[in-house]
Amino acid sequence: MKLKLILFSSLLIVLLSCQEKEVATTTNYSEIADQMEKSLKENLLDTWYPKAIDLDSGGYLSNFTYDFQIKDDAQEKMIVTQARHLWSNSKAAKRYPQEAHYMEGAKHGFEFLRDKMWDHEHGGFYQLVSRSGQPLLEKSPLKTAYGNSFGIYALAAYFGATGDSAGLDLVIKAFHWLEEKSHDPVHKGYFQHLSQDGTPIVRPEDTPSTSDLGYKDQNSSIHLLEALTELYEVWKDPLLKERLEEMLLLVRDTIVNEKGSLVLFLQPDWTPVSFQDKSEEEIMKHKSLDHVSFGHDVETAYLILESSHVLGWKNDDVTLAKAKKMVDHALEFGWDNEKAGFFDEGYYFLGEERPRIIKDSKNWWAQSEGMNTLLMMAELFPDDPWDYFGKFEALWKYNQEYLIDHEHGDWFAGGLDKQPQLKTADKGHIWKANYHQFRAMKGCIDRLRSW
């Protein structure tokens, strides 16, 4: 399977062969896998599809109420959400080939990306369009590397599922557009903010200090890494391989700091944006630019190992060690020892050795990504003192109790133990779909069944 990782050192190979996958001898792996498959198919995918297919205007509907009714609003469409739905339909079409509506949904979504979200004059994907596909440049005047990364991610999955050469043609065009417009030939990586013609935005001097305009960042970087990894699986291009290797090394060795956490925002030369020497009031004012994001750290641990695997980097002890450091840091400082789950935000205040939790909510995507990474670490380090499998089981239990909506389907936006009001919050919007949950549960199910 895709995420059946290469075991990165001979020591681990010997260890795991001796263990015979006995991560926890009393656990029925197939039982957990069956629970998750049922949740994935019946609670998540069946809730979203085909209901989210916009038969009137193309693409996918984004906005749904807490009980999963289609909202009677503008239903604007963002490239990130449209791409994630295309990715989900493409992966579901491969996983459940007997259900034709996934393949139909994937082709439907591809046509919207190709015909409406792609800028046929300047190239690149628009960030936001109306329901019918008209660019909303007053609301969203810039293109982003982040948005385009998800376009690439989805199109690669679509081609992998369908073999449609039109999908490959468009994803290659998108990759080369990013290469020409967004790639930084001097400091490497990609500029995040771009004008409509693709010119990188240089941070103006009068930019508010709380704005991320003109910065590079971890979020676009890790998802570019993710997208290039998905593309390299279906298109073995030498320049693509070079950029994938470049992004893996940048994320692993530059964006991840010495503590094992991601720097959120950086100058174009990769100097970290930090407010640590400011007052606590100033730090909290700017915390969107500078904090510890435990969810992103755990997600990135998985992504760098996946990229190393797809690149064929055998015995890659450096990436393995960095991934473990990131997960261990998140468990030590960001894990809820009472109910389980990863807190949203921490901060290393000057002179303090431990980060303080500055936001103790537990958002849905971090908990889903956490399961996938913890189970991967349990396979790689079955006897580790952190007991990754035990943490995985605790997180799966937490998600079932506080995040999965067993009445109306899908997941709440955050754990109800911390945010009970989210029980009646919208289930879908342009920043919330199902890709995190789908990818995480799919990865967990496949790994459990391989044991």
Automatic annotation (TrEMBL):
It comes from Aquiflexum balticum DSM 16537. Gene3D superfamilies: 1.50.10.10. Pfam families: GlcNAc_2-epim. The keyword NADP does not apply. One of its GO terms (biological process) is carbohydrate metabolic process. Belongs to the N-acylglucosamine 2-epimerase family. Residues 1-20 form the signal peptide. InterPro entries: 6-hairpin_glycosidase_sf, 6hp_glycosidase-like_sf, AGE/CE. Keywords: Isomerase, Signal. This is Mannobiose 2-epimerase. One of its GO terms (molecular function) is isomerase activity. PROSITE patterns: PROKAR_LIPOPROTEIN.
